[in-house]
Amino acid sequence: SAEDALEAAAADLPDLVLLDIGLPGMDGLDALKVMQQRFDLPVIFVTARRRELEQVLGLELGADDYITKPFDSDILLARIKAVLRRSRRAPAVPAAAPADRLDVGDLAIDLPAHSVFVGARRLELSPREFELLLAFARDAERVLSVDELLERVWGAGYAGEPQIVYVHVRRLREKLEDDPTTPQRIVTVRGIGYKLVAQAGDDATARDAARGEG
Fold first, then answer.
1. Where are the alpha helices (DSSP H) in 66-126?
2. I need a labelling partner for 115 at 20 to 30 A (CA). Which of 4, 128, 133, 184 fits?
C-alpha cells in the first residue's frame, strides 16, 4: 500500500520509486503528492490503464517517467537507469549548442537559465516541455515527425508511443498560444508532424526590459 511505502521510505530512503496508480487505500497520484512534500525522490509511474495516461503524462505532477503494464523487464531497467542518470547530474547546456539563447520571432529561450519568454510573458514549463520546445526551436520552420520528436526528447526506448508527444504538444500549446484550439505557433502538418512557426511580436523590447537586458 502507499501508506506502507511512505513509512518504508521514511525509514530507509530509496534511490527511486516505482509507483503504481491503482493502489489500495491511498492511490498513486495522492501518494506522489505526499512524497513530494516529504522526500526528494525520482518516481516512475506504473499503470495498466491507458485512459490514465493523459493524467500521468502530465509529468508536472512531479513524476519523472511512466511505464505501462505489461512491460518487458529490459525496458523497465533501461527506464530506471535513464531516470537515475538524469536525477544524479546537474542540467547542462550541450557543448555543441550554437548559442546560449534561441529566438524564434517573439519567443526567446534562455538555455543556461532554463527560461522561456513570449514577448514580456515568462512561461512556466516542465523540464520535458522545455526540452520539447527546444527541439522545435532548434529546427524552427521545419516539420518534425512524431518519431523524430520521440527520439530527440524521450529516447529510443519510447518508439511506438506517440501519445506522449500528443499530450506534451497540447500542453505546450496551452501555454504558448493565444488560442490553443487554433494554434499559430506549433502547427500541425497533417500526416507528417509538427513545426514551430515564428510569430512577430511588437513587445520584444518589453520582453528584454523584463529580463533586464533592454
1. 73-88
2. 184
Helix axes 127-138, 163-176, angle to 10 degrees: 90
Give the pairing of strands 43-47 and 17-20: parallel
pLDDT digits (tens, 9 = 90+) for 41-98: 788 888 776 656 555 554 456 667 778 778 888 888 888 888 887 666 444 444 334 4
Polymer length of the chain: 214
Torsion sign (Cα): 54, 56, 62, 67: negative
For the entire predicted model, the pTM comes to 0.57
Residue with cell 508532424: 193
How far is 64 from 81, CA to CA, in rounded Å? 12
Instruction: Please give the residue that has the higher pLDDT: either 109 or 87.
Output: 109
Q: In what order do the strands lie in the sheet with 107-110?
A: 101-104, 107-110, 115-118, 121-123
**Nearest CA among 79, 69, 202, 25 for reference residue 34:** 25
3-class secondary-structure state, position 107: strand
- Among the listed residues 210, 93, 212, the one whose alpha carbon sits nearest the alpha carbon of residue 102: 93
Angle of the 2-11 helix axis to the 28-38 helix axis, nearest 10: 20
What's the CA gap between 81 and 87, in Å, rounded? 10
CA distance 51 to 183: 25
pLDDT for position 72: 84
